[in-house]
Amino acid sequence: MQNISISYADISFLSQATALSSQLNLPLVDLSCDTNNKHMETDFSVHFSSAGLSFISHNKSHGAVSCDFVSGSNRHRRNYGGGNGQMIAKAVGLSGKFSPKVLDVTAGLGADAFILASLGCQMQLIERNPIVHCLLRDGLDRAAISGMEDSDLAGVINNINLLNEDSISHLGAIEPVNRPDIIYVDPMFPERKKSAQVKKEMQALHQIVGGDEDSHKILQVALEKALYRVVVKRPAHSEYLGNLKPNYSLEGKSTRYDIFALQKIPK
What is the pTM of this model? Predict the structure, then answer.
């Protein structure tokens, strides 16, 4: 069992760290003092600093994991990703005449949801892991602050609503009148023996979150609740989720989108 704590870089973050420590029932560690013994008492920590909230490993050389929608890859993809021509946009049926309401039931760190929101989709995000939810919430909150001086970014963040719930429970409670247009499923799976270099920073977080072992059950319920289609994101050349064959797939070099079409997308 991995040891996880809440840590903070300096005293200015003590109140925030204390509140999260109580919320998640995790011990508090002061990393403002350079004490190696303290570092070794915990394997990982959810860390408060001037850069925002991050997930850090104390015993391995994994990089910190955080949510950044203002700069880096998310900003680049928003500005230069290809608009409605992207596979993910085609997968959810996005067009000039149809901007769907999308329920992302495995939000993770929100990268795909952010792109869909930037293309005009109304995004409802569900993330059940409390640590991942906190990282994503922090990233969205910091983006909202930056959005005060960037109206385009503000518009994207306004398209996103995040909940910390169990996906299957949330899906089961959806009434027919509130069915989402699209349900998006991107499960986290056990690491491959050869992980891509770009994903190394995620290895520490993966140890905590693990694989979404019930993702096939999520898909089964999603198929009962989506209005137009369910989209499942998979590694290219992998097996179908739950051995359920989709109506069709869109496949790239490393990623595949399996589309379960329930009824025709409005034109």
Answer: 0.90
